[in-house]
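Sample pair:
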Amino acid sequence: MPKAETELVVIEKAYALLVWSLNHIAKFPRNHRYGIGLRLEQRVHLILELLLAGKYSRERLPLLQQANLELELLRFQFRLVKDVKCLSLESYGSAARFVNEIGKLVGGWIKQSGTKPPASAASPLEIRVKKSAGTR
């Protein structure tokens, strides 16, 4: 049987953060689980999706820059969750380490991909949709 393809480290770490987050969000009090918990879950999903899209895209820089912005927003969401006592200080520390590791990897990937800003003001996902629609 052929050996499975090795995944990029940043994608493995983002996936691990998603699993970790889902396990912790499930323990949030009900009044926070479906508000901030859901938004937190969606943001981690989005980061993973952006990284996967970047892996397969020739125009990866805008996707990686968007992932970097989402990571910064995620930092604030984890801080909020800690401040409203949904996460212990220890769990918050774990989340911060996850996000910092992923941020360093994304930053390195951005440097490797070049530092030019995207050609258009459209979001990275809109850029991909427009290019796909024009190739019929």
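The radius of gyration is 16 Å.
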